[in-house]
């Protein structure tokens, strides 16, 4: 049985993850965390004509339009990375269905703790913006282990919103775009259950920073078990509906709708130009991070 994050302390969470996750990552990645963050911590240096194999995310579309030929931005790496965690703490993130599965919020806390620890161990700074019903809290970017513990503590203290207006990620991304001035590594950690219209804001955020979308997923949101008559409640709005999960046709429609949403979401990420790290409540955090690192390493080759 998984212990709820609210039932322990930041120190215990960090100790658990140091032993169970970070040590394993050190061995599997052999300290090469640049495979995770290859575009981070850089300042603009120059422009040059596009060459085959260049990362299309660095195309400067304004210059390309004026010159009528593709140009890419070149950057110089800084010694220090500034990373921001944009945390969706809306009601749907508290969804969890069985004792064998963790809540999405638990996965969020563990992921942020691990990445913040990895980054600060190498002298980098981390900060966070926490979003529930509007941007509720901003933790300024700082370095060190104390900063990691502060992030964990602040995440644990954020209230669980039982009901709220439907999540509007567009306002969250717009707020981050206005607040984060220096080019940074930005992790957007969300289940992306939101009102429509956030795609362009995410794309604009990715043009200024390097953005990685961490997509929180619970498998029960995709495939319903056969439980007979049950009451389903929208975690965002509190709206309830009495349904018969024994009905195979209903379960199939539910599955098809979930698959379409997943397809649409992945297409939106692709149009926004962001890489995606899927993070399921039934997956192992080490495997998820290593799999993502290997995928990004292959893209660079």
Walk me through the structure:
The chain has 301 residues and is an alpha/beta fold. The chain has a single domain (5-41, 78-300), classed as 3-Layer(aba) Sandwich (Rossmann fold). It is 40% helix and 23% strand. The chain contains 8 helices and 10 strands. The strands form 3 sheets. The protein has a 6-stranded mixed beta sheet with strand order 5-4-3-6-7-10, with helices on both faces. Strand 4 (125-132) and strand 5 form a beta hairpin. The longest helix is centred in the C-terminal third of the chain and has 25 residues, at 248-272. The protein is globular. It starts with 9 loop residues before the first helix and ends with a helix. Mean pLDDT is 79; it is low at 1-6.
């Amino acid at each position: 049985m998984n212990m709820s994050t609210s039932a322990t302390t930041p120190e215990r969470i960090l100790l658990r993850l140091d032993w169970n996750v970070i040590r394993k990552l050190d061995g599997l990645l052999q300290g090469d965390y640049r495979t995770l963050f290859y575009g981070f911590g850089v300042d603009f240096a120059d422009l040059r004509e596009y060459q085959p194999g260049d990362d299309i995310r660095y195309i400067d579309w304004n210059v390309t339009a004026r010159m009528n030929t593709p140009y890419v931005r070149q950057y110089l790496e800084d010694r220090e990375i500034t990373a921001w965690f944009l945390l969706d703490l809306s009601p749907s993130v508290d969804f969890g269905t069985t004792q064998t599965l963790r809540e999405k919020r638990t996965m969020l806390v563990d992921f942020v703790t691990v990445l913040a620890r990895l980054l600060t161990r190498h002298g980098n700074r981390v900060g966070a913006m926490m979003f529930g019903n509007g941007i509720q809290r901003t933790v300024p970017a700082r370095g060190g282990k104390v900063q990691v513990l502060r992030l964990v503590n602040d995440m644990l203290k954020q209230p669980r919103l039982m009901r709220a207006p439907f999540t509007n990620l567009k306002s969250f991304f717009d707020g981050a775009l206005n607040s984060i001035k220096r080019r940074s590594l930005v992790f957007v950690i969300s289940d992306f259950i939101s009102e429509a219209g956030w795609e362009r804001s995410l794309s604009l955020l990715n043009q200024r920073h390097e953005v990685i979308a961490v997509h929180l997923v619970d498998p029960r949101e995709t495939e319903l078990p056969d439980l007979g008559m049950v009451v389903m409640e929208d975690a965002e709005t509190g709206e309830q509906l009495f349904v018969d999960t024994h009905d195979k046709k209903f379960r199939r429609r539910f599955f098809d709708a979930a698959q379409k949403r997943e397809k649409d979401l992945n297409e939106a990420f692709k149009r926004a130009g962001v890489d995606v790290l899927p993070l399921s409540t039934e997956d192992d955090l080490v495997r998820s991070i290593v799999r993502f690192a290997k995928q990004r390493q292959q893209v660079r080759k």
